[in-house]
Specification:
Radius of gyration of chain A: 11 Å
CATH topology of chain A: SH3 type barrels
CATH superfamily of chain A: Ferrous iron transport protein A (FeoA)
Largest sheet of chain B: 7 strands, mixed
Helix content of chain A: 10-25%
Strand content of chain B: 5-15%
Order of helices and strands of chain B: EHEEEHEHEHEHEHHHHHHHEHHHHHH
Order of helices and strands of chain A: EHEEEHE
Structural class of chain A: alpha+beta
Helix content of chain B: 55-70%
Number of domains of chain A: 1
Strand order of the largest sheet of chain A: 4-3-2-1-5
Number of helices of chain B: 18
Distance between the termini of chain A: 12 Å
Number of strands of chain B: 9
Shape of chain B: globular
Oligomer: heterodimer
Number of helices of chain A: 2
Number of strands of chain A: 5
CATH class of chain A: Mainly Beta
Amino acid sequence: MTLDEMKPGQICEIVDIIADGILGQRLMDMGFIPGTSIRVIRNAPLIDPVELEMKGYNVSLRHSEAKGVEVKTL
Amino acid sequence: MRKESKGMLVAVAGQPNSGKSTIFNILTGARQHVANYPGVTVEKKTGSYHLKGDSIELVDLPGTYSLTSYTQEERIARDFLLDEKPAAVVDVVDASNLERNLYLTFQLAEMDIPLVINLNMMDMAERRGIKIDIEKLGQQLGASVVPTVGNRGKGKKELKEAVRTTSKEAQSNQIHLDYGEVLESYLSPLEKHLSDDTTLSASYPLRWLAVKLMENDTEAQRLVKENASNGNKILDLAEEKRKNYISTQKKAPEKAIAQLRYQAAQKIVDASVTRKKEIKRSLTDRLDQIVCNRFLGPIILAATIYLIYELAIVQGYNITPYTWPFLAGFRDFIASILPSEGFMFDPFFRSMPLWVVNGTIAVLNYIPIFLILFALIAILEDTGYMARMAFILDRVFRYFGLHGQSVLPMVIGGLYVGG
């Protein structure tokens, strides 16, 4: 399952970063590391982007970017 | 009189939104120059300060989350550290986001430059219930840690002093990140090979280079190719090690490296940070529920933009009848001291200055509008609503091939043209 499939309010844990190249590296730089738990806060009014909370801070991703993160629900 | 010696070069690095510019400003004051890095449109700010007879030359590096070679900003920051070899780096760290910021700290430390860790925005961390044991953090990291509240100038003196002593002592930092048994068994032979090359070992931090080669960093590969006498052999070895790692560990080395940096950061945070329940946060969350709401969000956004238009453009314009007489009076005063009008044509020394004055006051007439507009934008930015606007509008902007971050120029441009 990938992060873009998660609904607001759900909590999940990162399993792997599937995206490679610059997107994969940037996601890891921002703290998307396997084992980290993520809470989906909300979608923007036009669905994209999605706001997430992890490691005590909030970050917004477009769904196309969130597709690069493999997760499992907790 | 001051001795005119070239000062010690110090770079200011940090992640975006760590308050890096504020720190740069309080360190250098008004003594700043703005230029571009050679050949690119990335701004380079330089400045200096003097303390106890020493002169410190500061360079503001672009804000980056990491030090890969993927983006221009990261390459610039990295090349500066490699080529200019500053005496020290001030690493500006957002105290309320310690873990993510330490991720960059480890990468800076790997470049073998003395570090001063500046824990900035301490007030924000406190408000969010984060308590940091400064002494413990310093011990854990093996570098001097200076807390500051940049926008109130708190800790400025201590930071200036720490930067001076660190760059004077020129001691390399004690921060050593252990990548674990497996990765280290790949890194140390690679480092050994690199150290056999005299050109490389004289110009570059070898452990950093070894890590970068394992990460498959194209810029690091170029450095080796161009500088080492048997560069291709080293690159072949690195490639072989990478392949071997991927096949035995079933994982790209760059992933493992990023993960280990975060693990190390988390360990340090766990040891030196205590969290209380956040009070401030829940208020922000509740406000976000309203301003980012699917239906209310766009309405509030439209209302906000209309309010800015009404206050800055409409009301600002209403003020101009009161300010205009002053500008007109100024023009009349200038006209009165210039040579008198001619019968057919005005003399050049009358008409030329009057053109200049007329042109200037025509622009100055808009000052009330600009003052109100910029004040309102500062409020949007400081309350954090600008970020919410970007969040709501990103999808719209993407349709035009823009990013949600384009919200500020769009709002200013739209309001101004509209006005």
